[in-house]
Each structure stands twice: as C-alpha cells, then as structure tokens.
Design brief:
The complex is a heterodimer of chains A (about 180) and B (about 170). Chain A has a domain of about 100 residues. In chain A, about 75% of the residues lie in helices and about 0% in strands. Chain A contains eight helices and no strands. In chain A, helix 3 crosses helix 6 and helix 7 packs antiparallel against helix 8. The longest helix of chain A has about 35 residues. Chain A is globular, with a radius of gyration of 18 Å. Chain B is mostly helical and about 170 residues long. Chain B has two domains: about 120 residues, no CATH class; about 50 residues, no CATH class. Chain B contains seven helices and no strands. In chain B, helix 1 crosses helix 4 and helix 6 runs antiparallel to helix 7. Classes of the chains: A mainly alpha (about 180), B mainly alpha (about 170). The interface between A and B is large, with 108 and 89 residues.
C-alpha cells in the first residue's frame, strides 16, 4: 500500500518537474489539486499549514514538495518527492551548463524571458488565490492575507517578519474569539 | 569540499547567494552572476537549485554540481523535518494551531505580494496582460491542469515575443 503511494508520488512529481518555472510557488495550484482535491490526503487547512511551514524554514522554497512527501509517506515520501521534482531539472541544468557560453550571448534569451514573465505572474496570482482560499475560512484570515500582501509589496524587509506577525496575530485573534481553529 | 562549505552557508535565498558568491568569495563578477541567473530562471526548475548546479559544475565538474546541490538542500531539509516534527508534537495545543493558521494566512499574502512585486518589475503591454490573465484564469479560477495550460500558453507567448522582436528589428 505505502509502496503504491511512493510510486504514485514519484510519477506525479516527475511529470510536473519539467513544468516548474521560476520556483515552487508556481507549482502550488497543481500540488493543491493533487494532494487535497484528487487524493484527499489532507484537508485545505493542512495544506496551507504545509505551505506556511515551508516558508518559515530556511532554504529553497522547493522544499514545500519535500514536506508534502513527508506528510503523506514519511521519510521515504520526502526522499521520493524531493528527488522526483529536482532530479529531471537538475540533469537539465547540468547539460545546459555546457552551452552556457553560447547561451549567455544569445539574443533570444531575453526574448524568452520577456515572454515567460507574464506567465509566471499569472501563476503566482493563481497560487496566491488558491493558498488564501485554503488558509482562510473566516474574514479575519483574509484580512491577514491582505495585510501581508501589502507589507511584501511595499517593504523590502525579510518576509519572516510578516509570517511571524501573522502567527502572533493568529494567536491573538484566537484568544479574542474572532478566529476559530481550523480542523 | 570547499564548495560544500561555501554553499552550506546560505539558506538558499537569492540575496544570500548573491552576497556569498559575488561579494565574499568573489567567484563571480556581478555581471557574470546576473547572466547566470537569467539563464537559470528560464530553465525549468528552481532557479537557485539550477544556479548551484551550474556553479558547482564550473569549478569541479559533475562532482562539484552534485556536491553543491546536496549541500544546498541538506541543511534546510534537516531543519524542515525538525520544524515539522516539533509542530506535529505540539499541534494538539489550540494556541499553536491558531498561530500556524495565522502564519498560513500570511504565507498566502506573501505569495500575492511577491506577484505584485513582479508586476512592478515587468514591462507592461496589452499582450503580456492577456497572457498573464489567461494563465491566472485557467489555473486560479477554472483550476485547469498546470501542464496543459503551460503547454498551450507558453509557446504562444514565446511565439508572440519573437514575432514582435522581429517587427521592431525590421522597423530599425
């Protein structure tokens, strides 16, 4: 049974790895669909917690994938998902390094970059929408989300400030009775 | 091995990587670094992860690439597991759950805010608005699969960018 889950995880992450552009945040909608909607391995609130924990921890944000693997299938799950998501693109980057000199001066590089930028932004906004739906089930949560978005947009401080403040306010709101605890 | 130590230092965040590689170790000139990052961000995969492979490869070949990727991932992974275990251990406490719920709301805002920052930095045109909106609506609203959406929109967007570059080239 658990071997079966590992194979499923491996196939899923190998299949989405080539579609990772700019980083893990653009993958979140697809991860949500797979873990919460299709397989019901966790509920929306748990998914949002995993995203938050991965943001709090230092390191590449691709680690959200590792944490999802860990939640579903423990250490083997973590190793499988991490390898499956990083493996194919790493091999790609290794071979691309051979042509790096040629790539550096290619004028099409900047054209492709310009073409990808709106796609990345669309993905990030979709990702933000899905994460806030998953994280918030009451008005107060949406207030936190909106305030954090404004903070990140207008300030260049470390995002950990925002996450820490969110945690403190979550605690406060709970104590004041204006936020219930997610299931 | 020196590579491993060097890369252990940074938590995988882009500013930290820049600080370590360009300012402290002087392995890269700022210009080289910008070029490298431009390439890494259009290749599929996490851009820092890709950069670590390219840099490792440049100094020590395959062994260097493997070493720097592993070094980059190992410490954060161990920390992440500790964090997750700690959370699982204390998650029965209502206050802890409330705090993480607050952090989760903030994490969603973090993604939205980052998207906002990206919008500020990008060249705005009607077509980029169309492509950006198309992706957002397909994935954020209709929740279509990522693969399908990207396979349709990315080639269109790239084709359009080349077409436009050619037009402006011809006008000169």
């Amino acid at each position: 049974m658990s071997g079966n889950i590992l194979i499923q995880l491996a196939i899923f992450f190998l299949s989405i790895a080539p579609f990772t552009i700019a980083g893990a945040q653009t993958l979140i909608p697809e991860l949500y669909r797979y873990f919460v909607v299709n397989n019901a391995w966790m509920n929306a609130a748990e998914f949002a917690q995993v995203v938050a924990l991965a943001q709090i921890a230092p390191g590449p944000n691709m680690l959200v994938v590792s944490l999802l693997g860990w939640k579903v299938a423990g250490l083997p799950g973590l190793l499988i998902t991490t390898t499956a998501i990083i493996g194919p693109t790493s091999v790609g980057a290794y071979f691309a390094a051979r042509w790096i000199e040629a790539l550096k001066n290619a004028h099409w590089l900047s054209i492709v970059k310009v073409a990808l930028a709106p796609v990345v932004i669309g993905l990030m906004l979709a990702s933000g929408t899905i994460t806030s739906r998953a994280a918030n089930h009451e008005w107060i949560g949406y207030v936190f989300t909106a305030c954090t978005a404004a903070f990140i947009y207008y300030s260049n401080r470390n995002p950990l400030w925002a996450l820490g403040t969110g945690a403190a306010l979550g605690l406060l709101a709970h104590r004041l009775g204006i936020m219930s605890i997610p299931p | 091995m020196f590579l491993m130590i060097g890369l252990m230092g940074f938590g995988g965040l882009a500013p930290a990587a820049h600080h370590m590689l360009v300012e402290r170790k002087k392995w890269h000139s700022p210009k080289e670094y910008v070029e490298l990052f431009a390439i890494c961000s259009i290749l599929p995969g996490g851009n820092i992860l890709n950069a670590s492979i390219m840099i490792g490869n440049r100094f020590q070949g395959l062994a260097g690439a493997v070493a720097s990727l592993t070094a980059l991932l190992l410490a954060p992974l161990v920390l992440l597991i500790c964090l997750a275990l700690t959370y699982d251990h204390f998650s029965y406490i209502p206050d802890v759950r409330a705090a993480i719920a607050g952090a989760a709301s903030a994490a969603a805002g973090l993604i939205v805010g980052t998207a906002g920052k990206l919008i500020r930095g990008v060249e705005k045109s009607a077509t980029s608005l169309v492509f950006g909106l198309a992706v957002f609506v397909a994935i954020g609203v209709f929740r279509l699969p990522l693969q399908m959406t990207l396979l349709i929109i990315v080639p269109l967007s790239i084709a359009w960018a080349f077409y436009r570059a050619r037009l402006t080239g011809a006008a000169k």
